[in-house]
Amino acid sequence: MSTERRIMTPHGEGRLVTDRSRHPVATLLVSHGAGNGVDTRDLEALARNLPRNGITVVRFEQPWKVAGRKIATSPKTLDEALVAAADQLRVRTPLVVGGRSAGARSAARCARHLGAVGCLALAFPLHPPGHPEKSRLSELREARVSTLVIQGERDSMGRPEEFPADVDLAVVPSADHGFKVPARGDLSQDDAMEIVVEATLEWIVREVVGSAGRAGPDTGGNGPRA
């Protein structure tokens, strides 16, 4: 069952929606894109399925969305609000920070500062639609922690083949930027969300939980929020 609470950020009230695991081995903090809130199909699928697999999911709704605005505020304000949200967490498990679209960009920019051990980029907007020359790859590189990109095969803001070979990438066949698949395609919408969940779970277990175990019991947490 989800629990909600409002928090203060430098840019107004944000909202945290938490789905807790009974025996968590990792915590995933995710934020949403520039045109929607935390109720997108992918974020809801993660919140519904990951907790029973040992991962607590905390969805952060940015102040602009909580205030009822239609347009997202500047990247700097998104980052500052995300940092404020992370500062509200008191977790004893490794922290993964992530998001979809604009939220993925913010997560990548903030991951190191937050002490995260992983970054989950859902539908990373590699470039504006129709402008591949305006690459945002440098933002993705800013994470400097283990990063998984989950991308739709038909994403107009960056198809899978546009990413460098060294990017850890999971592909949702036939999906667009919102991970929507054709109604009459080979893959159902439920199947598409299962790919998102399974790819995330496998990566967190392998790269985050596994890395924490190899590092030893005193180094697997996320610093000041432990």
3D architecture notes:
This protein has 226 residues and is α/β, with parallel strands linked by helices. It has one domain (3-214): Rossmann fold (3-Layer(aba) Sandwich). The protein contains six helices and eight strands. The protein has helices spanning 41-49, 63-66, 75-87, 102-110, 137-141, 189-215, and strands at residues 3-9, 12-19, 26-31, 55-61, 95-100, 118-122, 146-152, 169-172. It has an eight-stranded mixed beta sheet with strand order 1-2-4-3-5-6-7-8, sandwiched between helices. Helix 5 links the parallel strand 6 (118-122) and strand 7. Helix 1 (41-49) packs across helix 6 (189-215) and helix 3 packs across helix 4. The protein is globular.
Q: CATH H-level name... which superfamily?
A: Alpha/Beta hydrolase fold, catalytic domain
Beta strands, count? 8
The helix-and-strand class reads alpha/beta
Assembly type of the chains comes to single chain
What level of helicity do the residues show? 25-40%
**Main CATH class:** Alpha Beta
Protein name: KANL3/Tex30 alpha/beta hydrolase-like domain-containing protein
Domain KANL3/Tex30 alpha/beta hydrolase-like: 26-204
Task: Supply database-style keywords.
single chain, 226 residues, alpha/beta, Rossmann fold, eight-stranded mixed β-sheet, 6 helices, 22% strand, globular, AB_hydrolase_fold
Briefly say what this structure is.
This protein has about 230 residues and is an alpha/beta fold.
What are the SSEs and their pairings?
Elements: E1 3-9, E2 12-19, E3 26-31, H1 41-49, E4 55-61, H2 63-66, H3 75-87, E5 95-100, H4 102-110, E6 118-122, H5 137-141, E7 146-152, E8 169-172, H6 189-215
Parallel strand pairs: 3-4, 3-5, 5-6, 6-7, 7-8
Antiparallel strand pairs: 1-2, 2-4
Helix pairs in contact: 1-6, 3-4
